[in-house]
Amino acid sequence: MNVEVEVPTARMVLASSTLLGSLSPEQMDRLLVRSRMAHAARGEVIWMDGSEIPYFGVVGTGFVKMVRTSAGGQELTAEIMGPGQSFGLLGAVEGTGCPLSARAVSNLWYLRVSKADFLEVYGQNVPLRDHLIRRTTLRLRGAIDMMSRMASGRVEHRIAAVLIQLAESYGIEEPDGSMRLEVPLSRQDLAELAGTTVETTIRITSRWTKQGVLKAQYRSLTIQNLGRLLEILGD
Fold first, then answer.
1. Which residue in 186, 201, 163 sits closest to 5, CA to CA?
2. 190 and 80 part of one domain
3. Which of 188, 4, 14, 5 is nearest to 110 (CA)?
4. DSSP letter at 107?
5. What are the tens digits of pLDDT across the range 143-197?
6. Is there a domain that residue 44 lies in?
7. Domain tally, the chain
8. Alpha-carbon span 160 to 204, nearest angstrom
9. Which of 102, 206, 216, 220 fits a 20 to 30 Å CA distance from 31?
């Protein structure tokens, strides 16, 4: 049975943003004038790299991956964006086309924020500019690391890379040192992120569960041995 996901309001999504949630009420109101909620189905391409579009996105529910296609046609995941995270924002600030393609990993609700309206707010908010510069530097480093990890032909490497990035963004450290992922992640979602099949994902995560690396529950994962996942990347 399919469970209906409640559609978040535009204001809820904007307030949950890791970058824009600290704006003043007046600045939020300015952005909300032309912002609209949008839906993308699992696997849907939201935009292709190089596209010129008048908005950027803020994830409400679900996940979107930012990808670059190599010369050989391989799709490499550079970033995984989940609830509260913005995607396509750098292109808005720089006035360039989107450097990466955006593809919905799961059924996705996201807020389309007008680039023109954001640039007006951005120009008047020095703390926002400073924060964005710091976050952009960190995200560029993370994107380079992620693409390097995902470039491996081994599926185990790709799944480990996805879990590590999710742990960095959504992990909650437990008293025993394990890392609980605070995201409703199905095996199909994980397979989409890693660019493999559901069957392969189940086989690998089941093996890691038996080895004590993961603790798997319905739509929930706890990383019990993050060090081992890092070792797998280095194998």
1. 186
2. no
3. 14
4. S
5. 556 666 666 668 898 888 888 888 887 788 888 888 888 777 778 888 887 888 9
6. yes
7. 2
8. 10
9. 102
